[in-house]
Structures are given as structure tokens and as C-alpha cells.
């Protein structure tokens, strides 16, 4: 296991380097916007206030060379009045988000629970059903059930999320009125924001349970149904395909014959001998999907009006809020890198052949 | 000696896109308690498929046993319920496979895999089964067996893995061990060790063995009787010494002729058998060896010869006596 430990340490050491590389990449890409484009967000009534933009550009040095600006963003700037250093990504300060009306960290803190809640509720059916159906499909290889599941998954895999999301919204909300968009009904948000309601996690459904408010829980879940269905269907369609092909591959392995020749029942052959092997690639794919969900799902959150990380990114990008986009991207990269590290460690845990390398 | 296995007229087919492949076409043989039978033949002649069909381990579809009986201690394995045959597999009839790498589950420990048959068939708890597994592993010559129970297959060498596989097969003290080319994937020196190991274990445990191989050299020191297979049929069956001294089927002659011999002083060229083994897309109406046979007569083209006894311990499926070149 010591090799595992050194592997983790090595990966942790690389992590900051990767993050710095990411900062350079994103910063240079966003520097392709002109200083005017980058400053326009902060000036009201541009036609009436001639010179305001030029003033801001000069004040913040937005026409300086890109490396100088980059360094200022990374290390922060000295306030000429107080002499204190302000901002600076290296000091953990991602800056002020005009879109979110708060520091980027504050806005992330406000927006993340909605995304995390969505990810959580999506992950459970996605991983459970996706893997289960993948196994069922593989075990019934080329039989009717397999064919039906394959059609079902290829449809899910091919429909764009904005089409599927809009269709379910149209049908279940506009036509039937069952599942509304947003996070909560008005009456419920009033309760949630009142002082009697303790916000443990800021995830409505979970806080409702912790506060013992089943009516709020029901309302929160009602709002989650459509985005969860949208995300879960598209993702489990993919997971089903991965599980199915991995399982089919495993079922063709020689050691399946060994297991049968020992006198194991077919059920045990699959559960004990096939599944642990077949799930190795599935764990990777599943975990990466989960990371993707945590990073915010721009389109789904926008369609269903969920104030999460994805819609935050969309709003920031539309209003050319460079600081917010930089901050969100950095945060997403951090989640991705840490998530990847966890996947790699998990991989070593479930596959003994990798563990000793 | 009592007979423990009697296979009669076994026929197995595979349904493929190109048509039905007749892999086994009426194979019959018997086996006594504690006896060792060698089944010899080149790749694709149906030796593995025959024994796998017997234990119903052929993947179905596409495989299907279409005719025949496989009487194990008087009961037909092919007519048993799934539950009944499961209690035979691994408990009374065990198998050792060719490639000790791919036939082990890579993510389960050796201890788990070796002790598993005890757990299913004898209802043993994990601790007892592991203790017994360590003993059996020691018996097959794994050093520090107890410590190695927690290791994974990839941590063993090829020869050691094959020893583990043998331990796994013998842990339940089966009546019959089927070894499907167990030495093919191993170095020659390791092959000899494995053969010696099996000989020793046979003396200690007294199980019957079916040893499938394409190596006539290995079988000579191991089996009492040998069946030679070609094109899904047994073409010759005889006691080992008789077969080597007096091969009667042209194919057996070809096989023996292609072996190098230590006792020959002149360095003769090794003879190969011209042509390719048949693709069994239809049930052979002629002799399957016809196209490669140097002794063929007209009769061979019209009828596939059945296995007939020449003497009590020698059977052959051929129309022609190769010693005279005339029909029997």
C-alpha cells in the first residue's frame, strides 16, 4: 500500500501545477476580449458617460500587456490608499462577481447547494438504474429485453439535452401542470427563508427532512423531478451502454467458464465473478459523470430555472463578466482535478492489478 | 474396476452466421474409476468441446448438444436439471483449464477462488475452507501457502498458477478430473513438473483423469488409454503402448510421424500431414480425413467409417488396413 500512498502524494503535488496551467489557459483566452468589452459591464448608461470606460480601463490597467494583467490577477494589487494587497487568486481571492453581487466565493457558496442537490438526486437513479439495466441487458444479450433497452439507451444518448428538457417541461408542466420549474413554490420559499427553518446544507429537500417538514420536502422534490429525469435519462443511457459492453466483455472471459465449472449458480457467477470485473470501467465513467453534474449543468439549469452553478456560469458569460467566468472555471477545474484523483484511487482499490504498480 | 463415465454418441453443434458447425459427431468412450484416458488431436478437432458438452459448459446459444448420453455413475449428465448438474460440477467432476492466466478471476484472491468449491458444495465456512485451501495448495507445491491465500492471480508465475488451478479442482476430492490442455501454455520444464504433480496426486487421491492434449509425448507417460480425435470423431482408441507401437489410423500415423524421436540415429526429416483439418459445416458423409489421407480408397468417399474393434484393446475408424493397404 505504500506505493499507493506515494502515488497519491505525487498526484497531490501535481495538482497545483495543473491548476496554474489552467489559469494561464483561461486567462489568455479571456484576454482576447477587448478592454472595452471587459469593462462595459461596470459602466451604466455608456452613451451618456463619455470617458467613463477609458477611465476604468486606465484605473485597472486593462490595456496593460496580458502577462502583467495575469500577474495582477494571480498575486493581487496594492491598494494605493491603505497599502494593503487586495485580491489575488494565489491568496484564495477569486474577485468580485458583478453577476452574483458578491465575491465569487460567496456566489459559489450560494449557488452550489442547488447544483449539489440536483447532482445528488440525479446520481442515485442514474447509477442505480444505469448499472442495473446494463447488467440486465448484457445477461439477456440479443434477446428482446436487450434490444428494447438498447433502443431506449441509444435514444437517450442521442437526444440533445435542450430538446429533451424542453419536451418534458412542455408536457409535464405546461400541459399537465404536475412538476413546475424552479426550486420551490412561493409559499415554501417563504417558509424556508423564515427564521424557524434551519438551513443545514442549503439543499432544500435535505433541509426539509432535517427540519421535519414533509410538506416542504414534497414541494422540493416536485420541483426536482423534471431536471432529474432529464439529466438521469441522458446520463444513464450512457452508463447503461458502458455497463452493458463491459459486462458482455466480462461474460466472454475464460474465468466465467471456471466459475461455472466449479458448480456456482448462474446468479452467483454473475454477482461474484462477473460484476466486480465489469464494474471497473463503470466506476470511472460514473464518477466522471458525477463530477460533471457537480460542475453545474448549464442547459438543464437554465431550462428549469434552477439558480445553480451552471446557470451562474451562463449568466456570467452572457454579460461578459470576465471575473466570474474565471472564478467559476477555476472552481470547476479544482473539482475536476480532485474528482479525478479520487477516481484514480478508487480504481486502485477495486482493481488489484493496478494497486501494486 | 467399475465404470464411472460412459459417453455414448455425443453430438454437439454450433449455430453460426455461416451455418451449423458440427463440432462433435458421435463421440463415445468409457472411463473406469481411477483410470486415466488421454484425448489427443489437433486444435479444433472437438476434444475440448466433447468434455465441455458433457458438463454442459458449452455457451448456449450458439452451442447445443443435439444427441448422445453422458452417463456419470449411471446418471445422464445431459438430462440432469441445472441444480443437479451444479452439484456434480466442481464436486464430483472438476476441470483444469489450459491458460492459468485467463481462467482465474483477476480481481478475486487466490484464497477466495480456491476455497469457493468447498463453500458451495460442502457448506464450509470461510475460515475452515481457507485452512483446507492452504493445505491443498501446500500439497500441490505452493511455498508459504497460508500467506499466499490473500494474493491475486497476477502475483503468481504461470507454473504456480497452474498448480493453484489444480488445487482448486482437487479441493473437493472429485472422482474425475478433466484436464483440458493444462500444460499447453507452460514452458517445457514446467510442463514436466505439472505432469509429475498430477501423477503423484493421482496416486494419493485415486481420481480418474481425462487428459486432453495435442502433445503425444506428454500423454505417453500419463495415460493408460488414448483416444485420438479428428474432425469431431474418435478415429482410434487403444492402450498407450499398443497405440505407439502399432498405430492403425492414417491420422495417428501422421501424428506420430511428425514427432521427433530421441532414439533415432539418422536425422530424418519430420513428416507433416499435408492439408488442413476440415471445417465441419456439414456432418461428414465421407471420412473426415479423406482429403489428407494417403491410403484412401473409393469406400472412404461414400461412407464415414465407424469405430470398430480390432482387438480387445484397440479400436479404429478406418476402412483400410494401413499395413496391407487393403480394406479390412
From TrEMBL, chain B:
Family per similarity comment: Belongs to the ABC transporter superfamily.
CDD domains assigned to the protein according to its UniProt record, in alphabetical order: ABC_NikE_OppD_transporters
The organism of origin for this protein: Leptolinea tardivitalis
Name this protein carries in UniProt: Peptide ABC transporter ATP-binding protein
SMART domains linked to this entry: AAA
InterPro entries according to UniProt: AAA+_ATPase, ABC_Ni/Peptide_Import, ABC_transporter-like_ATP-bd, ABC_transporter-like_CS, Oligopep_ABC_C, P-loop_NTPase
Domain named ABC transporter: residues: 5-256
Stored Pfam families: ABC_tran, oligo_HPY
One MF annotation (Gene Ontology) recorded for this entry: ATP binding
Main location: membrane
Keyword Hydrolase: no
Lineage: Bacteria, Bacillati, Chloroflexota, Anaerolineae, Anaerolineales
Keyword presence, ATP-binding: yes
A GO CC term assigned to this protein in UniProt: plasma membrane
Taxonomic superkingdom: Bacteria
Keywords: ATP-binding, Cell membrane, Membrane, Nucleotide-binding, Transport
Locations listed in the record: Cell membrane
Membrane topology: Peripheral membrane protein
SUPFAM superfamilies: P-loop containing nucleoside triphosphate hydrolases
A GO biological-process term: peptide transport
